[in-house]
Design a protein that fits this description.
PAP2/HPO_sf; 291 residues; membrane; 0% strand; Polyisoprenoid diphosphate/phosphate phosphohydrolase PLPP6; hydrolase; binds the ligand CC(C)=CCC/C(C)=C/CC/C(C)=C/CC/C(C)=C/COP(=O)(O)O; transmembrane helix; 2 domains
């Protein structure tokens, strides 16, 4: 015969936690409802979304008035199907697994590369240089610089190029804001939000607006300015360094920047396709001439 369980003094336990929940005991409460409800009430209201769901009036307990597992005989109705969000996907698609793995690698790599995320980070002393790169790819200097050059330009060819650069920058702001607002991916947890002049959607990180702008502007410059080879190499390098600095600063995950480069590159193709000129939008250039 098994000996009774004893406490620290060696005295037998009158009612242990395990025996108190045996069927028929007060804690079990006929069908287990008492124990189930005491479990629920031991949590702070709203502390756990799972609890919240169990407490809800449409939970199996409330609906049928008894704990669904204990004492459920064949006469009792089968448990109601779980809501969609509670079902476990036992057969995730290959695409789902691939995406989740990519996301995990992305988060891990981005955290590892975020070496300038704070002053106390391993490369924290490089932070001022990274912030300088941040300003070099910010929307405000590019917009103001383009407007200034447009106002000073005295050739038609120059104006046409600058008008299209302005259109490209505005299109970029619009598309990035739209995608950020739709995707709503939070910036990495290690990011310090100390960027200068941001829009409300800039609390989101996908895609990186700096990466789109760097790719767009560098492709624009390479196609419309006659530059010596070393300068062309510098322009491409600048774009890549701006993108990489976003991850080092902890502002973005790697996929935000990678997609940003892709988007910026594609945006240039759109701008090139819709190229504004006195031939297709004469009104724009006539208005400008009248000023
Ligand atoms: C001057 C003209 C013609 C129009 C102004 C349009 C406008 C709303 C400009 C806002 C520029 C601005 C504040 C851009 C935000 C740039 C930024 C902080 C992007 C975030 O980059 P990310 O790489 O961190 O995603």
């Amino acid at each position: 015969m098994p000996s009774p369980r004893r406490n620290a003094d060696g005295r037998p336990l009158a009612a242990s936690a395990s025996s108190s929940s045996s069927p028929g005991s007060p804690a079990h409460g006929g069908g287990g409802r008492f124990e189930f409800q005491s479990l629920l009430s031991s949590r702070a209201p709203g502390a756990d979304p799972t609890c919240a769901r169990l407490r809800a009036s449409d939970s199996p307990v409330h609906r049928r008035g008894s704990f669904p597992l204990a004492g459920a005989g064949p006469s009792q109705a089968a448990p109601a199907p779980l809501p969609e969000e509670d079902r476990m996907d036992l057969n995730p698609s290959f695409l789902g697994i691939a995406l989740r793995s990519l996301l995990a690698i992305d988060l891990w790599l981005s955290k590892k590369l975020g070496v300038c995320a704070g002053e106390s980070s391993s490369w924290g002393s490089m932070r001022p240089l990274m912030k300088l790169l941040e300003i070099s790819g910010h929307g405000i200097p590019w917009l103001l610089g383009t407007l200034y050059c447009l106002a000073r330009s005295d050739s038609w060819a120059g104006r046409e190029v600058l008008m299209n650069l302005l259109f490209a920058l505005l299109l970029d702001l619009l598309l990035v804001a739209l995608i950020k607002g739709l995707v709503r991916r939070r910036r990495p947890a290690h990011n310090q939000m100390d960027m200068f002049v941001t829009l409300s959607v800039d609390k989101y990180s996908f895609p990186s607006g700096h990466a789109t702008r760097a790719a767009l502007v560098s492709r624009f410059i390479l196609n419309h300015l006659v530059l010596a080879i070393p300068l062309r190499v510098l322009v491409v390098l600048w774009a890549f360094i701006v993108g990489f600095s976003r991850v080092m600063l902890g502002r973005h995950n790697v996929t935000d920047v990678a997609f940003g480069f892709f988007l910026g590159y594609t945006q240039y193709s759109i701008v090139d396709y819709c190229w504004l000129s006195p031939h297709n939008v004469p009104v724009l250039f006539v208005l400008w001439n009248q000023q």
